Amino acid sequence: MSIYTRITSYVCVLYLSYRLRLYVSQMLSTMGPKVSAMALFFPETQVTAKELFETNPDVLTAHNPDSQLCQLLSVLKSCTKSLDVCMYCLSYEPFLHVMEELSRDSNIVVRVVTNGDKGRHTSGSTTGEEKFPSKRLIQLFKKGVQLKVISMADEALMHNKFAIIDNSLLINGSLNWTENSIFNSYNDCLITTDPRLVFAYSQQFNEFWSLD
Amino acid sequence: MSIYTRITSYVCVLYLSYRLRLYVSQMLSTMGPKVSAMALFFPETQVTAKELFETNPDVLTAHNPDSQLCQLLSVLKSCTKSLDVCMYCLSYEPFLHVMEELSRDSNIVVRVVTNGDKGRHTSGSTTGEEKFPSKRLIQLFKKGVQLKVISMADEALMHNKFAIIDNSLLINGSLNWTENSIFNSYNDCLITTDPRLVFAYSQQFNEFWSLD
């Protein structure tokens, strides 16, 4: 084998392995969620978006795709198999709307763990809409969203605010899924596909789910 | 060059590159924080640990190294350059103790952003100790911890609960650094060295820090 043939075959092998890696990475990127790590910070300043939502919960995606809220909702909408939500306060309609839409697809299992200490939700300055389980949440339950209300002793809260999509993407942070948290307070929301973190949070969710 | 010489040199190169990678990864692991991803879940059930802390804030590390609180404090203690804390409620002594210890070392810059809406901290069932800036926090400030209190309009909170260590490790989640959050409520705490997330949160911290 001459030196030229050898070099040519090396180049061919290199090129083919490059194409193969490209193909595999493209395959993976289309299979899984589009995001592997993202941080969103609130309050959302695009108040127009908030007003748009009041007329049509779905309109925001089309109008303000770059808004923090839209990005978060888009990640939720990428769900294809399961959505596990563990949320202290969960009352903002766009989130409930997405959960309702997802659970309409019989292949997607939507499970919600929320805090059941009504006393705490009505104290202070939180509004009545944040009482759990709210009428709206019970409505979702009747439509197929699985619901678990965790009641702890006085002063003790199910204070988590995380969600797991398709057992492969984790959302956590300080953000409750309420209108006030999105538009009025400083909050952070972290999104990651790190399998170690997704696994740990999934375990925690399943522990909550198996509680009597 | 015979085929045997060639094979021997290939094997040597492979072995040397393996040793080099091993050396570099060991170097990196000793240079940076020991953890790259971790999830901690509360409430901490080791009440003994809580009692030990009351007599000596440092004793827990020695006695219960596997407890959730210890692991979190150990990560904080790994700080060598800077600790940026952005915390809605920050009153539990072991955390303040670590911050105080770190800032004693003049090479470590400890900066704290906290919520200044006193009204909210005294409403509901939160205790007086969670008022900000608390006497204890002012004491830390006098000892070198840099402090920024963010006051927002009524109903609006600086609700974040995150910290950045040495600009290379991020802690976030639902956990406030209070005794009640650690021992009585369900909370999650995520630790990651993902540079994309660390960078995004650092930017957010610096935005808070540059606010008038």
TrEMBL record, chains A, B:
Q: Which domain of life is it from?
A: Eukaryota
Report any one BP term from Gene Ontology. Answer: lipid catabolic process
Pfam families according to UniProt: PLDc_2
| Keywords, sorted A to Z | Hydrolase, Lipid degradation, Lipid metabolism
- List GO molecular-function terms, semicolon-separated: RNA endonuclease activity producing 5'-phosphomonoesters, hydrolytic mechanism
- One GO cellular component from the entry? mitochondrion
Q: Does the keyword Hydrolase apply?
A: yes
TM stretches of this protein: none
Q: Where is the PLD phosphodiesterase domain?
A: 154-181
Query: Which InterPro entries does UniProt cross-reference here?
Result: PLD-like_dom, PLD_domain, PLipase_D/transphosphatidylase
Family named by the database record: Belongs to the phospholipase D family. MitoPLD/Zucchini subfamily.
Q: What is this protein identified as?
A: Mitochondrial cardiolipin hydrolase
